[in-house]
Amino acid sequence: MREKKEMNMRHKMSGFLILAIAFIMLFPGTLAAQSKKDVVTLNFTYWGGPYEKPTIEKLIASFEAKYPNIKVQGQHIPADYEAKMSAMVAGNKAPDLGYVRDFMALDFAKQGMLYNIFDMIDKDKSISRDDFIKDFFLYWDKDKSYGMFTAAEAYGLFYNKQAFKEAGLPNLPTKMEDALTWDQLIEIAKKLTIDQNGKNATQPGFDRTKIRQYGIRFDFNQGAYMPLVRSNGGDYVTDDNKFGLAQPAALKVLQNMADLVVKYGVAPSPAEAKALPSTAVSVTTRQSAIIMIGQWVLLDLAQAGVDFGVGVLPNFGKYVTSPGWGTIGIFKTTQHPEESYLFWKWICDPSNSIETHKAGLWMPLMKKYYTDESLVKLWAKGNKAHPDGYVDAFMKPVLTNFKVHPSSYVKNFVLIDALVQPALERMYMGKETAEQAMKNIEPEVNKLIDGKYGK
Amino acid sequence: MSAANPATLGAKRRDSLVGIVFTLPAILGFVMFSVGPMIASLVLSFTNYSISKPLQFIGASNYRALLTGQDTFFFNSIKVTLLFVLMNVPVCLVTAFLIALLLNSKNIAGRSLFRTIFYIPTIIPIIATAMIFMWMMSPDFGLFNALLKLIGISPSKWIYGEKFVLPSLLLMTAWCSGNIMVVFLAGLQGIPTSLYEAIVVDGGGTFAKFRHVTLPLMTPTIFFNMVMFLISSMQAFLQAYIMTQGGPNNRTNFIVYYLYRNAFEFGDIGKANSLGWILFLIIVAVSALLFWSSKYWVYYGDE
To answer: ipTM of this complex > 0.95?
Structure first.
């Protein structure tokens, strides 16, 4: 009996042991399987300077806190973003969603590699397309948009107030209807261009080879010249598929800009500009009195603590301002489109990153932040990055006088711009007039013109 | 002792097997990282491969577009690359050779110190060198223009001016040619002193020593340096990528930089691959020419 009992015990013991072993072996497996099912990981790539990076990191942290089942792997790519993105996409390692340059994203979207954001917004009951400013969507086809800019970043003028005071000049106009004409701008820029002997460009004996402070500075890419070309009724590629920059409306603006550099010497040429510090810094150090650029410089100007003012761009007819060209897209290769969309929405909602808006880097994508006074106060007023006049000079034009840059709608933009950019360099070197520069490349450009996206 | 002895044969076979096993890592590396990608690149050069579009074979269209001038930038990129090579190779070789001669001379105090100083630029990462040269070449407040002003010469635009950009890059490359200098120095030290003594006995001076001993005995080293430096100059990329972005007015749109732009800026990877192959063929042709010419001017002792 006793023996039998012992046998029983032993059987029971070994049975228990087997169970235990099985449990130990299987349990972590089941646990892991469970957690894999529940937590979704998104890969998100982005660029940005030393301020934008922590902004995105904060956005990710707050998003993960709200949605504990979604992890976002943020990958910051500070330089050579397009090359890296190309390599990732070619190697089937595209992120779930990420920053993409507009011209690249439009090409991706046309080839069916990005989601139509409208399909996702329309399914979402919590927001609608009308919550956003319509012009911020980037269309690759009629009613098909892959998304929006990372943030709006309108173009305008920024200037060093001390430089204006010393030259005895009044502040720049901040209302669109008061915008400077080109001739007025030339006069102001002359008075603000000062050589090393302290003489300005209107005085006799002014030495334009030894300049201490340039009157105005602008970039040589589409950013600066296109709002002015659009304001004069021109375009990069016309609606009837001609090379827009070679048409009279654009040529006038380009020649005017070239004159600032070549004829009057009140703006730095590309060679001279390369030797200057970054655009925002050059206003701080008074190497340029006015800069014509996008509103992201507010951040740097405010942090440098310089006394600066803002103004509207010069006007050639109908006032136009334009955004930057960084956008966000959701890749079709993602395994988690819904979660990706949730994160996209999180980034696009200014309430999640109001600090970054207040600091001057971004402008909100949602309409109510422009129209609802209590929301406007949260970012566009009463802080050092948004001086008096900002609302008139930057915020209002975005609602009413806003046109995106050609890289956001011209097909083959990169290829065409590879011809345009050296031609502009020749123009700013004074080797060719605007007309010669553009007419010379026109036959080559014509071969590349393939219309516009979204038409 | 006939070779048919089975024991020796087995030993021989074993020897070669061991040899192959030992060289296997190198062979595998060469096949995987050189031959494989080369074949892939050759195949891709006949396609329209781009990241966003489906891949199609398009025959020799890429080559045709490049060689018939349909591509606006190609001939210019060949031209500026060759110009750069034609300036770079002679100037850098002569400079490095002269410095090596000086550093080899016994009459210089602190020889090893100078040798170190002239070699240091080669150790500095090229990116750091490029950044520093960009500052020094700044037209408005760069060191070089300040020096020019000091001696009363009107300032230059350096890398920002169309005419000066290639010579300016040459200046930087010459500064970094310490590795060529070291090879020359090694070659100079390999020349037996007995030959110089023979010249002295025959009543020859310094020039005769140089003309009849140094130069002929150095030709193999000069040849080696010339081939290596020619190839690396043809593949110039970093200067354009970091300092000039191919500008001003495409004056530094070197072939490899243009290849990079095609692949990553224009998204035309097929064309980028065909550019790579065209450059490869040019380099093969030029090297072959050099090797052919070598029998007329390179002196190997046993001939």
So the answer is: no
